[in-house]
Amino acid sequence: MDMTLNQDAATEMWRPVVLTFESACSFDNPFLDVEIWAEFTGPSGRVIRREAYWDGECIYRVSFAPTELGAWSYVIEAPEQTGLNGCTGNVEAVPYTGELDLYRHGFIRVADNPHMFAYADGTPFFWLGDTHWEFAYRESWDKSNHPGMTSQFRGMVDLRVEQGFTVYQTNLRSDMGARDRYWIDGGMAKGAEDLPNVAFYQQELDRRMAYIADAGLVNALGQAWAFSIRGENAVEHQKHLARYLVARYGAYPMVWTLAGEVAGYGKEDRAALIDSWREVALEIEARDGYGHLATAHYTNERPFADYYQDESWMDFTLNQAGHGDYLIKASDYFDYLEAHGDKPFVEGEALYEFCSTLEEMGTRLCTADMLRRVAYICMQAGGAGYTYGAQGIWDNVWESPKELDPFMAIFNRFGITWAQAVDGEGAVQMGYMRSFYEDNHFWELAPYETTDVGNLFANKAPLATANQDLSRIVAYFGDTVRRKLAIEGVPTGAAYASRWFNPCTGAYRDGEDILAVADSITLPEKPEVGDWLLVLELKA
Q1: Do the bridges between strand 47-51 and strand 385-388 make them parallel or antiparallel, or are there none, so unpaired?
Q2: H or E element, residue 239
Q3: How far is the CA of 272 from the CAs of 77, 297, 501, in angstroms?
Q4: Which alpha helices (H) appear in 414-539, and where do they start and end?
Q5: Average pLDDT of the segment spanning 344-372
Q6: Is 0.90 surpassed by the pTM of this model?
Q7: Is the peptide bond before 79 cis (omega within 30 degrees of 0)?
Q8: Cα separation of 24 and 8, whole Å?
């Protein structure tokens, strides 16, 4: 981002430019005692309001990304004593010349089909996330103990981009002994006097946020974990953080996820946590001039959580089915979507690769096979995307401990490090999954409704999706046993070409043509053990 002092500027469409202004006076609290806004008007008349963020001494900056080509004008709204009120200028938006889809197509949104995401121009967007709860400061910028990476942070970003990921699911962990990083004197100790520690943002967080965006990834950002909003002044404190984040980083490709496990796991304050984080969500909604997607990282529970589902600020569901080896069935998703199918659904945290399984003493590891099945079940059940996770990365394990922490052993009984986890085969296979669904027009597919959903063995049958006219059918064969699935309603006498897809290797193999008998076809048995996908395409 351009950090030079300026009144006029130019930038590529969808890419942020930073305008810098100096106040003629100082304030006791330059963050809370003053609000400065810039109102941008585009060639079409569209108006985007962006709040300035305090960046030390008397400096305020406005981050702005144009959403259409041509000349944008702006005017500053500020207290008179700042000398900035009424200042005007222009930003010229020129065509983006790079290859990143985020800037070629624009920020992501809910698609016209409310079960999917799209870029601003309508191009379908497949959510494939990676979990990085410790990205903000614990993942090293300039060191690595992985033999193929000189930087832990940059190396992981680059690898995930190479593998086909589109989303970085992150958290600031502002609750974990990090308050002095984000706030002068810890923030909450001063209550209503919160003051950002701009040195940390300038020296550490700015470059991480920029690197993620410049790699072409959407940052799905949470502020803390649920419990951080307990106590005196805690709600206002998190609202202050939200305000500062939106101002400083809201011109990037963002998704706001509030906090990890927003309802917590205690019955005594569950309602209070839900209500408190709602206030933060509404603060974000009021200040985000771009209307970036917003959601909540839900708590792991059965049935699936739904406490914000009908609220207007919440754009999609970010579920947590749970890691370890919880039983996760297609019917879990079908039941949820039947009740809440008006918004997109993403499985945001399920089986972590290399995580200890949850039987007593955790004698096994969660494998790529286990997590892959959950990912495909989610997608075949109507999901808009999936977030992968790996033990050792989410909690940033640098070296395998000599003695396991009793609590962390629940997840990492085998001492898996980030450098081991980052090369997990499950992440590679998630890239295959994205390619498969894009190749087969995932935006046209919807779950095929069988007539025996309530059957005891329904979860053991192939799981099918299809487009509206049944000219393309995709079936996932996971833990199938002694069952075939009949697809009804196909054109009488129709012939389908078939291909099998191996989700472990990303390779296709040709199958036999399949003919409809009357108005139905029966799917064949999968070719080999393991999970497979069958693609049927109607022949002309």
Answers
A1: unpaired
A2: helix 234-249
A3: 36, 16, 47
A4: 418-421, 425-439
A5: 85
A6: yes
A7: no
A8: 20
Average the pLDDT over 2-6 and give the result.
Answer: 41
Q: Tens digit of pLDDT for each residue in 79-118?
A: 999 999 999 999 999 999 999 999 999 999 999 999 999 9
Predicted pLDDT of residue 302: 87
**Is residue 489 within 8 Å of residue 470, measured between CB atoms?**
yes
Domain boundaries, the chain: 9-94, 124-444, 448-538
Whole-angstrom distance, CA of residue 32 vs CA of residue 113: 41
**Residue that has been written with the tokens 């003695």 in this structure:** 403
The number of angstroms, rounded, from the C-alpha of 334 to the middle of its chain's C-alpha atoms is 21
Please write down the HEC assignment for all residues of 178-194: CHHHHEHHHCHHHHHHC
Using only the alpha carbons of the chain, give its radius of gyration: 25
CA angle 50, 52, 54 (to 5 degrees): 155
Task: Give the Cα separation of 294 and 292 in Å (integer).
Answer: 6
Q: Residue 360 has what pLDDT?
A: 57
Question: Which two three-digit tokens encode residue 25?
Answer: 């006076």
Could you give the CA distance from residue 309 to residue 263 in angstroms, rounded to a whole number? 13
| Other Cβ atoms within 10 Å of 526 Cβ, number | 18
Q: Are 227 and 209 in contact (CB under 8 A)?
A: no
Give mean pLDDT, residues 228-236.
90
- Model confidence at 325, pLDDT cuts 50, 70, 90, reads low
- From the options 2.60.40, 3.40.50, 3.30.310, 1.25.40, give the CATH code of 448-538: 2.60.40
Burial class (CB in 10 A: 0-12, 13-18, 19+), 86: exposed
| One-letter amino acid for residue 335 of the chain | D
Find, among 394, 387, 366, 378, the residue nearest to 430 by Cα: 387
pLDDT for 232 equals 86
Strand-pairing partners, residue 70, are 93
Q: pLDDT tens-digit profile of 497-522?
A: 999 999 999 999 999 999 988 888 88
Left if phi > 0, otherwise alpha if psi is -120 to 50, otherwise beta: which for 70? left
Distance (Å, whole) CA 329 – CA 374: 8
Query: What pLDDT sits at residue 87?
Result: 95
As a dihedral over the C-alpha atoms of residue 257, residue 260, residue 266, residue 267, rounded to 10 degrees, the angle is: 10
Specify whether the CB–CB gap between 410 and 373 falls below 8 A: no
User: What's the average model confidence in pLDDT over 249-278?
Assistant: 96
User: At the fourth CATH level, which superfamily is domain 124-444?
Assistant: Glycosidases (3.20.20.80)
C-beta separation of 152 from 143 below 8 A: yes
What's the pLDDT at 407?
73
Could you tell me which of 488, 499, 428 has the C-alpha nearest to residue 128?
A: 428
In this structure, what DSSP letter does residue 202 have?
I
Domain 9-94 has CATH 3.40.50.200: no
Phi-psi region of 300 (alpha: psi -120 to 50; beta: other; left: phi over 0): beta
Six token digits for residue 118: 């799209």
Whether 124-444 and 9-94 are alike in CATH topology: the answer is: no
- Type of residue numbered 3: M
CA 110 remoteness from chain centre: 13
